[in-house]
């Protein structure tokens, strides 16, 4: 594997690096990163901060940025990776990692929304977060407001790109009547059109009916089944099967009637002559087979 020459880089053992801000990776994107590194080598070194160990033996490091590249090196069986070593505290490493991910990630990622919240928890103001991440102050303010209001349903809609964050904030601030005005204004401003407008309407209806939603889906405890409940379930199942049997019987009777009617017509020479004159003397194979089976069944009786 070849490495692009980068100034002030050193080779760091991959096993000596701790990821301070881990996150899940898209498998397809990660596979592309791994394939590119295997073919072309590492174009940009990762960034780490050195840490002293208690015994002072081997140095350890905390990752600032480059988790995907580090994991790719591990998958490729590499024991060392080119890295830029900086001096920074653990908290600074965490903040730098958040800012680096925020600055390069598309604005509709759920990680982006959560990372803005984590920076806010670290004591950074909205203006500081906007300056560090190069996001607009309005966007940062909107995300923080949705997070603090526990608007998980709206946050998921923003994350998936169904509605802009500004529209989500306006919906959170509006009452049931005002929400319709927000949607109309979003349509007039061309923020919501077509499928996105329909999705927003469904979201508003779900929010009014079921609330703001939950941060994580919690499994509901299962109710114990009583004898009466089991009996009722069994009776409902039996009734459904009876309905299906009745429908099957009715369908069979109709099919027998149609077969017999067609058989009678085909026995009429005048009818057959008319069919021949119109070029319709032959029957579809399925119908002909059905008539043949009917005749054979009648002969066996």
From TrEMBL:
Protein name: Chromosome partitioning protein, ParB family
Positions of the ParB-like N-terminal domain: 10-102
Signal peptide (residue range): none
Gene3D superfamilies membership: 1.10.10.2830, 3.90.1530.30
Any one GO cellular component localisation term in the record: chromosome
Biological-process GO terms, alphabetical: chromosome segregation
Xref: PANTHER family: CHROMOSOME-PARTITIONING PROTEIN PARB-RELATED
Pfam families per record: ParB_N (PF02195), RepB (PF07506)
InterPro entries: Chromosome_partition/occlusion, ParB/Sulfiredoxin_sf, ParB_N, Plasmid_RepB
């Amino acid at each position: 594997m070849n490495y692009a020459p980068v100034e002030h880089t050193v080779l760091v053992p991959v096993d000596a690096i701790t990821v301070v801000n881990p996150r899940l990776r898209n498998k397809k994107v990660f596979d592309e990163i791994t394939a590119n590194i295997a073919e072309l080598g590492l174009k940009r070194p990762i960034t780490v901060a050195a840490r002293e160990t208690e015994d002072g033996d081997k140095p350890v490091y905390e990752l600032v940025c480059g988790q995907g590249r580090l994991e790719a090196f591990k998958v490729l069986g590499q024991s060392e990776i080119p890295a830029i070593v900086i001096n920074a505290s653990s908290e600074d490493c965490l903040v730098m990692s958040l800012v680096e991910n925020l600055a390069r990630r598309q604005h509709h990622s759920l990680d982006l929304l959560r990372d803005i919240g984590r920076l806010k928890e670290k004591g950074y103001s909205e203006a500081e977060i906007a300056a560090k991440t190069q996001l607009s102050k309005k966007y940062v303010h909107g995300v923080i407001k949705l997070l603090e209001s526990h608007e998980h349903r709206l946050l998921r809609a923003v994350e998936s790109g169904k509605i802009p964050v500004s529209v989500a904030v306006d919906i959170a601030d509006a009452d049931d009547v005002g929400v319709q005005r927000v949607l109309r204004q979003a349509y007039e401003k061309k923020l919501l059109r077509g499928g996105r407008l329909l999705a927003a309407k469904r979201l508003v209806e779900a929010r009014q009916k079921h609330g703001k939603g939950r941060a994580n889906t919690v499994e509901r405890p299962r109710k114990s089944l009583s004898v009466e409940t089991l009996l009722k379930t069994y009776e409902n199942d039996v009734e459904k099967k009876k309905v299906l049997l009745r429908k099957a019987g009715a369908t069979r009777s109709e099919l027998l009637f149609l077969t017999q009617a067609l058989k009678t017509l085909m026995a009429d020479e005048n009818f057959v002559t008319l069919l021949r004159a119109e070029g319709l003397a032959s029957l579809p194979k399925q119908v002909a087979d059905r008539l043949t089976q009917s005749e054979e069944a009648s002969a066996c009786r």
